[in-house]
Fold:
Amino acid sequence: MNANRLRASMFIGAAYDLLVGATIVLALEPLSKLLPIPFPAEPFYARMQGVLLIGLGVFYAFAAHDLERNLRNVAGAIVIRLLGGAYLHASVVFADVAPFFHVFAAVDVLFGLVHLVLLRTERRARFWPLLLRGEA
Structure:
């Protein structure tokens, strides 16, 4: 059943965000040495992004816990993933951001597309009509 796959993909996405966010908050300097990303001039802002990623991870985990009840949050997670990936990609292309951020962009887009495909295939079952009627 795709609902179980959607739930699993949301939990995996949540774990990814929690892990990356916690790593940014707790180990920003070692992370910048490990990855081909320059250490930020003002680490506060990078760490704040880590805190926001932790928040997103929690948001995704709550949405995954009860898909039917939190269906709008699932849709919001898809939008956030796709927009985040597009922003990261555009930043690399147009703003001279480190090319390694393409990896993070690809992960976000991949999660967003997987969630979208799984949600769309579930529409024949129960989720999509609820979302369209505003009952979710």
User: Anything to note?
Assistant: The two ends are 20 Å apart (CA to CA). DSSP finds six helices and no strands in the chain. Helices lie at 2-26, 28-34, 43-65, 71-94, 101-122, 127-133.
